[in-house]
Amino acid sequence: MAVNSAARVEPRNEQVRPSPVQKRWLERGLDQAGGKLPLFDEEGREIDPRTIKSCIRQGWAEPWIANPIKPDWLVCRLTEAGRAVLA
């Protein structure tokens, strides 16, 4: 039985790039001690948790410390992979 080569899915070798929103958030960790990423944007609005979680899934950010006052906040820092994707 012949296999239809058009039906095969080849893995992509492209590097995933951050969206503009993710990139803006990650860039703010470049000049912070330890690569600390902000909880709030430049206008004082909380960073969308979906942005934070997607950057963690991609390996660009990692949870850093627990916030005892607001345990639901994700305090993160930039990873080496995050620095590399911004370069």
Notable characteristics:
29% helix; two-stranded antiparallel ribbon; 87 residues; 3 helices
Report what the structure shows.
- With 87 residues, the protein is an alpha+beta fold.
- The chain has one domain (18-86).
- It contains 3 helices and 2 strands; from the N terminus they run H-H-E-E-H.
- The chain has helices spanning 20-27, 49-58, 80-86; strands at residues 61-65, 75-78.
- A two-stranded antiparallel ribbon has the order 1-2.
- The longest helix is centred in the middle third of the chain and has 10 residues, at 49-58.
- The model is unreliable at 1-13 (pLDDT under 50).
Counting DSSP E segments of at least 2 residues, the number of strands comes to 2
N-to-C terminal Cα separation, in Å? 48 Å
Q: What's the domain count?
A: 1
Overall residue-averaged pLDDT value? 86
Low-confidence stretches: 1-13
Q: How are the strands of the largest sheet arranged?
A: 1-2
> What is the alpha-carbon Rg in Å?
17 Å
Provide the fold topology.
Blueprint: H1 20-27, H2 49-58, E1 61-65, E2 75-78, H3 80-86
Can you give me a brief rundown of this structure?
With 87 residues, the protein is α+β, with helices and mostly antiparallel strands.
